[in-house]
Amino acid sequence: MIGRMVRRGRHRGSDRPLGWDAPTRLASSLAAAAVLASVLVVTVAWQPNQLPLRFTPGDGAAATGPPRPAEQAHPTSTDRPGDRGGLTAAQPAEAKPLPSTAPDPTPDPPAADEAAEPTSEPAPPAPSAVLLIAAHSGKCAEVFGLRTHDGARAVQWDCHGGDNQHFQLLDAGAGHVTIRAGHSGKCLGAKDGSRRDQAPVVQVSCTGAASQQFRRDDAGGGQVRFVLRHSGKCLDVFGASQENDAPLIQWPCHHNPNQRWELNPA
């Protein structure tokens, strides 16, 4: 059909056939472009040294050429809001400030072994224990039977140096002392705070009451008398007895040896 159109439409002196209009030219151009594209595809496919195509996720298009330096370092996703995916180059390390050479104005705390010594003075040593020896019998005052309860009676007994014969004389102020038993930590005093003659002397919990305070009066010859503060009476071995278990009482003061006592270290 095209041949007939060519034969029919030739003009004299012209090589272009009649009917070579715009649609015909467009069709010819498309055909030529298709042939050229086929040649390019075959040429690329048969070049062995051609680099492979590279795809970037999220771009929707292919790219050629060597990978970018950021991709060679296996970067990770930044996951920042607004990113559409893909690989990004590693961020450079944040610069750290150099240490200051200025001296630290705050001194270091002292080490444990360099801590300051306490300024408080050590506690004074406990008073030494003594034996109370009756001048008339040579026997010692003691708390009977090592009893530890309040109201246990005080007696005289052969000196044996047991804890119930050890007594500490503790300062009670105003020239008076308390007499504390070594085995129980309790103090000697007039029973129930009595002021009557012959009231027994017993051990009771130390309260600092006047019935537990004694004034030491010098009796001469290194001996003393113990005068109770609340009654003004003296510590006495009942009836000037020479026997063991004779009770200690309070009695008006006199100069007989059953009211005089020697104080010997325990």
Low-confidence spans: 1-14, 48-53, 55-64, 69-90, 112-116
What percentage of amino acids are in beta strands? 15-25%
**How can the largest sheet be summarized?**
6 strands, antiparallel
Order of helices and strands: HHEEHEEEEEEEEEEEE
Q: Kindly state the percentage of residues in helix.
A: 10-25%
**Discrete helix count:** 3
Shape: rod-shaped
Rg is 61 Å
Specify the structural class.
Answer: alpha+beta
End-to-end Cα distance, whole Å, is 153 Å
Q: How many DSSP-defined strands?
A: 14
Overall pLDDT confidence: 76
- For the largest beta sheet, what order do the strands appear in spatially? 3-14-11-10-7-6
Written overview of the protein:
The protein is of the alpha+beta class and 266 residues long. The chain is 14% helix and 25% strand. It contains three helices and 14 strands. It has helices at 2-9, 22-45, 69-72; strands at residues 54-55, 62-63, 130-134, 140-143, 154-157, 167-173, 176-181, 187-190, 201-204, 214-220, 223-228, 234-237, 246-251, 261-265. A six-stranded antiparallel beta sheet has the order 3-14-11-10-7-6, with no helix packed on it. Residues 1-14, 48-53, 55-64, 69-90 and 112-116 have low confidence and may be disordered.
